[in-house]
Amino acid sequence: MKFSIPVLTSALAASALVSGAPLGRRDGRGAVYFITNEPEGNMVIVANINADGTLGLNRAVSTSGRGSHGLADPVGPDALFSQGSIKASATGKILAAVNSGSNTVSLFSIDSSDPTNINLIGEPVSSEGEFPMSLAINGAGNQVCVLNGGTVNGVNCFSVDSKLGLVAMPNTLRSLGLNQTTPATGPAGTTSHIAFSEDGKQLIASVKGVPPTPGFLAVWDVNTDGTLSADFQTVTPGSGGLLPFSMTVIPGKNAILATDAGVGFDIFDFGGQNQSSVVPITGQGATCWSSFSNQTGNFYLTDIITSTVTEVNVDDNLKGTIVKQYPKLQALQRSTMTSPLSGARTSSTSWLLTRRPATAAGVTINANNLQGMTSFVKQ
Fold first, then answer.
1. Which of 6, 11, 16, 315 sits between 20 and 30 A of 139, alpha carbons compared?
2. Dihedral over alpha carbons 249, 255, 261, 262 (to 10 degrees)
3. Structurally, what CATH architecture does the domain formed by 3-377 represent?
4. Alpha carbon 69 to chain centroid distance?
5. CB under 8 Å to 261, separation ≥6 — which residues?
6. Which residues of the chain have pLDDT under 50?
7. d(CA 326, CA 335)
8. Where are the domains positioned within the chain?
9. Any idea of the CA torsion for 315, 294, 337, 371, to the nearest 10 degrees?
10. What is the residue range of the signal peptide feature (predicted)?
11. Average pLDDT over the chain, rounded to whole?
């Protein structure tokens, strides 16, 4: 996928970006979204997916919340130590974003005829925890769950109301009991990602370990009314697994591929005895983010240290093998050709896409704060 970077040549165009009025072409197949995650004010940046595959900056819309950066030495581009800080649902026609600095979650409606047109529904709601950093939306698009990673950590869920926005659901606030700070201190020892299982019957949160102690997945059962089991089941990676990070559902297998920043990736099989396997990636620095391509049937994993995308195939027996690796700029092109990823690699992608027009429009873009990436494709 090529990048189309429109340059704002007038004050009118710049003000349109800030106000949320449309810019650029509107002949697109859909839109991609990411957040600025700025402490002074968080914004959703929206770009067209044009008919020819290029991306074009369209608008910036305030979340009415604030961003934050986790505590790390050195300070780097992975501000929330997570995947899924912004999430779209084609079924629900909604977009949700975390505000880690104000401990809230914002919900937007998506115009399916023009997915760049998003509008805040209601007001941001409390995440009921601290340092929210990842979101999951169920298959029906009517339930949103958030993962908090600060001093008050755990999960909480909301129902979706077309007028009120997010409405807290009873019996879904659950603690992880981690010894953390606000903002979270990491990357090691932090929460990573929240996701529903493919059948929607389980809610899963990944937690990185502090080497040599491995991390784990926390798994809650989801009842028919959307409430969660009182306690979570702990599922640990196989021998050698350390830092389970992003999670991507393996279609049709009741299983999850999780990147592992300490070794490569882990495969968790929930269909039998909750078995898991670990697959090293030779030469990896920290493999953190993942996505699945329906087009190729493969997974794409990104490494924050080496800027490499690793293409992975998982067979019917849940054996994972490395297909090919794409270094640096080649990896950047490959990752955007398949499916948007979330994290620092796509933060860098988004920063390249937006820095010139956003600066002209007065929108603050900091590569160390910019987070997440999700997409809405017209049906």
1. 315
2. -170
3. 7 Propeller (2.130)
4. 15
5. 187, 208, 242, 243, 245, 286, 287, 288, 304
6. 1-25, 331-352, 354
7. 9
8. 3-377
9. -90
10. 1-20
11. 87
Tokens of 253: 């297998």
> Whose structure tokens read 């003000």?
15
pLDDT in tens, 233-274: 999 999 999 999 999 999 999 999 999 999 999 999 998 666
Beta bridge pairs of residue 375: 32
**Residue 284 near residue 242 (C-beta atoms within 8 A):** no
Instruction: Count CB-CB contacts under 10 A for residue 221.
Output: 15
CA angle at 358 for the pair 107 and 340, rounded to the nearest 5°: 55
What's the residue count for the chain? Answer: 379
Residue with token string 């396997």: 277
Token pair of 49, please? 């997916």
What's the sign of the alpha-carbon dihedral 258, 92, 337, 34? Answer: negative
Q: Which residues pair with 48 in a beta bridge?
A: 31, 56
Which of the 8 DSSP states describes residue 85? S
